[in-house]
Each structure stands twice: as C-alpha cells, then as structure tokens.
C-alpha cells in the first residue's frame, strides 16, 4: 500500500515542475533586445568627405552691406563756471545752501538750448523791413522790397498790384457778420491792431528815453556854469 505522505510528495513535486516550466517559457519566447547600431568608423585609408554648410540669402545680404559707424555724440558746450563753483545769489529756497556748479555732462540736455529762441516774424516783417522804421537797415530793406514788387507788377500787366494797400485796421469797411469768414476777419483785425499798438508803445518808449537823455545832457553845462559863477564870486 502507498501511504498518504508519498502521494502528497509526488503531487507537490509535479506542481513545482509545472510552475517552473510556466515561468520559464516567456523568457525563452521573447527575442533578445537589439543593441543600437554604432556608426562605423571610416578607415584611415578612405578620404573623409564633408559637405560645406549652405549659406542663406539673408546672411549674404547682411555680409554684403558695409557696417555703418555709430553716430558720434555732439560735443557739449563748455560751461562758463567750472565744476564745484558756489553760485552765490541764485538760491531762492529758504534755509538751503547755495547751488554748486556741476560738470557739463551732468546737466540735462534741454538746459543748453534754453536761450536758443527762434524769433517768429509776421507777414509784414517777413517781406523785408519797415518803411517808417528807426533803423536805416530796415528802411533800406523795405525800399528794396517795394521796388521788386513794383517790377513784378509791371511785368505781370495787372494794374491792381500797383494800388496802394491800406492796412485792415485803417480801412473803413464793414466786416462779415456771420459764418467762418466773419471769425477769420475779426481775428485778422485783432492781430493787426495788436501789432500796431505794440509798435506805438515801443516808439513812445524810445522817444521818451531820448528826451530824458537830451535833458540830462543839457543840464550838465548849466550846473558847471553855475559852479563857475559861484567860485568867481
């Protein structure tokens, strides 16, 4: 008779053999992994052929253009006061020190162009002087401009150009009452009257100064003669 222990051992040994066969079959069926192919090194006898890099059209275009030099910075003007000078009498802040002059490059750029005032001339002044001006140069320019205008009028054959042009502030005409034309005429009249008033004020101030100077010159010999008379007495 076969004992129960022997039967259990035989069954257990069979199960172990089947499990080993089952676990080992997948590894045998899968193919081995393929290694990455390495480039074959050329032999020293075979020459190496290298293709030159292709250049694009943009690269050739940029290389053909000459390199432009960088613009040079404008030289700064030389200041009248050296750096570190104490500017006395210019401080208008209370309980603060006097300002100190700095180097030319430390000042802002707009400061160097503060005095570059561009004089805007009116239409009458742009023609070239004033016929009744105090300056001889302006009277000469006005006469030259008038002579050229007369020559152009004679060559053109238009008699209206030879007519005397009266300023708008001295004309006795009715201005337009409505529309944009009325606004333009009023604006032009205001500007002309303002210019005339300024010219009269300047002329009055100039004449006043000359009169005062003449009076001072006339007073000098009177005082000298009076002193001489007193000393003789």
TrEMBL record:
It is found in: Mitochondrion. The keyword Secreted does not apply. It holds the Pfam family Ribosomal_L37. GO terms for molecular function: structural constituent of ribosome. Residues 46-67 have a biased composition (Low complexity). Keywords: Mitochondrion, Ribonucleoprotein, Ribosomal protein, Transit peptide. GO terms for cellular component: mitochondrial large ribosomal subunit. Residues 29-45 have a biased composition (Pro residues). The keyword Ribonucleoprotein applies. Its main location: mitochondrion. Residues 23-82 are annotated as: Disordered. Belongs to the mitochondrion-specific ribosomal protein mL54 family. This is Large ribosomal subunit protein mL54.
């Amino acid at each position: 008779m076969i004992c129960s222990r022997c039967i259990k051992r035989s069954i257990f040994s069979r199960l172990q053999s089947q499990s080993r066969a089952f676990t080992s079959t997948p590894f045998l069926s899968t193919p081995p992994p393929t290694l990455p192919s390495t480039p074959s090194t050329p032999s020293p006898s075979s020459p190496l052929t290298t293709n030159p890099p292709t250049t694009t059209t943009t690269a050739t275009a940029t290389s053909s253009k000459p390199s432009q030099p960088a613009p040079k910075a404008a030289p700064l003007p030389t200041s009248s006061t050296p750096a570190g000078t104490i500017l006395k009498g210019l401080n208008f802040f209370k309980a603060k020190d006097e300002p100190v002059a700095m180097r030319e490059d430390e000042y802002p750029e707009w400061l160097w162009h503060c005095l570059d005032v561009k004089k805007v001339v009116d239409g009458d002044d742009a023609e070239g002087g004033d016929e009744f001006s105090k300056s001889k140069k302006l009277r000469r320019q006005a006469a030259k401009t008038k002579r050229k205008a007369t020559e152009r009028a004679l060559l053109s054959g238009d008699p209206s150009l030879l007519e005397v042009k009266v300023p708008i502030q001295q004309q006795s005409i009715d201005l337009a009452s409505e529309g944009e034309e009325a606004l333009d005429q009023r604006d032009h009249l205001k500007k002309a009257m303002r210019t005339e008033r300024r010219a009269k004020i300047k002329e009055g101030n100039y004449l006043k100064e000359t009169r005062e100077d003449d009076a001072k010159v006339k007073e000098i010999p009177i005082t000298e003669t009076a002193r001489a008379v007193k000393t003789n007495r």
